[in-house]
Amino acid sequence: MPPGINEIEEWVIKTEARLGATVEPDAQRIFAAYHRVLRCFVRDLEDPRDIALSRAAALMLVQELILQKEGRSGCE
């Protein structure tokens, strides 16, 4: 069964807090880009679940970029 909007939003909030606490400059730059993209999601999408899923997908990409910079991957 697909995750509900509450589960998605909880994951997004937790992941935003963890990634937002990263002090490495490149990670901060990538996370800042994520925050700029959030405005597009709110502007272009109407359904709250679509917005939450878009935020989650963008955070997964941010997370992967940060991990790759460290020589790791979260998808392997």
Protein architecture, described:
By secondary structure, the protein is an all-alpha fold. The chain has one domain (5-69). The protein is 76% helix and 0% strand. The protein has 3 helices and no strands. The radius of gyration is 13 Å and the shape is globular. The two termini are 23 Å apart. The model has no long low-confidence stretch (mean pLDDT 91).
Span from first to last CA?
23 Å
Give the SSE string. HHH
Our count of domains comes out at: 1
**pLDDT under 50 segments (min length 5)?**
none
What percent strand?
under 5%
Helix percent reads: over 70%
Radius of gyration: 13 Å
Largest sheet geometry? none
Q: How does the helix and strand content classify structurally?
A: mainly alpha
What topology emerges from the helices and strands here?
Elements: H1 5-20, H2 25-44, H3 48-69
Helix pairs in contact: 1-3, 2-3
List keywords for this structure.
mainly alpha; 76 residues
Short description:
By secondary structure, the chain is mostly helical. 76% of the residues lie in helices and 0% in strands.
